[in-house]
UniProtKB/TrEMBL annotation:
Protein name: Nitrous oxide reductase accessory protein NosL
InterPro entries to which the protein is assigned, alphabetical: N2O_reductase_NosL
Domain of life: Bacteria
Species assigned in the record: Candidatus Sedimenticola endophacoides
Pfam families associated with the record: NosL
Amino acid sequence: MFPVSALSGSFDLPAPGPKDTCPVCGMFVSKYPDWVGTVLYKDGHAHHFDGAKDLFKYLLDMPTWAPNHSVENIERIGVTEYYGVTLTDAHEAYYVIGSDVLGPMGHELIPLRTKEDAEEFLADHKGTKIVRFKQVTMELLLKLDDGVFE
């Protein structure tokens, strides 16, 4: 459904500027550097998000949030990994839901780089589940908004 990154080595994406707002919630993204998610298009245009949850809402409903863009034109998708606070490929990350760690928009998908990190975070922060990129659905995101974890 979504393009898979063909990158090796470092995962570089443009950083959000002080005026970049999340297309889903309207918050200024640069105020939350520990939570930034980015979609980079092949033409160099980028959309930034204040967390993985809004990034996935965008990807799962692009006609609403990005009517002039298409999935086929996405080059890379990155999320900020929780422990290292570095960008990582969103397709490769493990996401913990239901934890006691809140992001800028409340309950959040917490991105971790490895399965071991995700399992440790799940135990340390009372998470309820680990999901991968392709397992994220709009239903899951809306439940997170409502504080419902399965």
